[in-house]
Design goal:
Blueprint (H helix, E strand, L loop, with lengths): L2 H4 L2 H10 L9 E7 L5 E9 L18 E8 L4 E10 L3 H4 L14 E10 L2 E10 L16 H7 L12 H33 L1 H4 L6 H6 L1 H11 L4 H4 L2 H12 L16 H15 L5 E6 L3 E5 L3 E3 L2 E6 L9 E10 L1 H27 L1
Parallel strand pairs: 1-7
Antiparallel strand pairs: 1-2, 2-4, 3-4, 5-6, 6-11, 7-10, 8-11, 9-10
Helix pairs in contact: 2-5
Amino acid sequence: MKTNKLVNISLSIILMITLLASCKNKNYVNSTEVFSDGSCFKTMSVNGDSSVAFSQKFPILIDSTWEKTVEIVNKDVNTYELKVSKKFKNVNDINLETPNDSASWSILGHSITLDKKFRWFYTYLTYKETYKKANPFELIPITDYISRDELLVLNGEYTEYLAGRDSAEIEKIRDQITSKAFTWIQASIFKEFSKTLISNVGVIGNPKVTAESINKNKDTVLTYLKLKEEDISDVLFEVDSMLTIYSICLNTNDFKKLSPSKSKAFDEYIEKGKKLELLFDMMADNAKSSVIMPGLLINSNCKTVIGNEIQWEFSPLKSFFGNYEISVTSRIINRWAFIVSAAFLIFLIAGLVIGAFIKRRR
């Protein structure tokens, strides 16, 4: 892992999230059209230079089952658009597509569902796209440091928390929330390191080094780290440096047994650090998505609704603090149900009339 890229990574992530609303760099365009039988037609496109025509730019692998087209967007600047599309029997089949490990977006836990409810005259379809929380360091809840309203501010979402405040006051509040969120993410990373260290005390083989002694010296280690520099995120990802600090604070050299060059104890921790680094690299990425539903749209948590289509923009960091979900519900008229019901009423009325007529004749 490159340390210089991880300096201030946590703060950079938080700052970028606060700017999501103004981000204009749209890398992907995704569209899904859902049909009344539950099938769907998905289209994805991406712009780039001529190499985009021969590369795998999407989070799922594009094989021969996808229809692919390449068009020139701007000949002067050598810009091309790669567009792929495919028909699916149901939206669940999209989840079964093979992830493209060479595309950074594939690290995001993305799933689609379509719930169908029959109510005689109407059928209700609820479509949901969910991106699971992307932050790999989640031992400490973000709400231990900031409120839910403050979290909405970080995510660029609407909240009455900012109502009635001028721009200078809002900027000051954002800075305060950012500072608290920065403290939180460093605390989360440090706790992950401590947990990994404690779970491997048996490898150290020193009776004086126990879970209790490690926890007891936590504040000493943190003080040592903060004396070195205010931003400790780069040190936290240098496992050997952290082990050296613990060796100094607990007066033993046995922590070196857990060095990545000698042990796999911190392999998972290192992989989580790499994922965080990748999320950092994806900060400028953005996707413009849309879903077209059959029938009449009756409910959605999406702000932009045009007819029976919803549109939204998604950055990978939208799901950094928690799950990010888009949902929409539409209502389809079951015309046959009206016809059957009308026919039943006609036969019922006719039966009553005939019965009354026969009764009167008697």
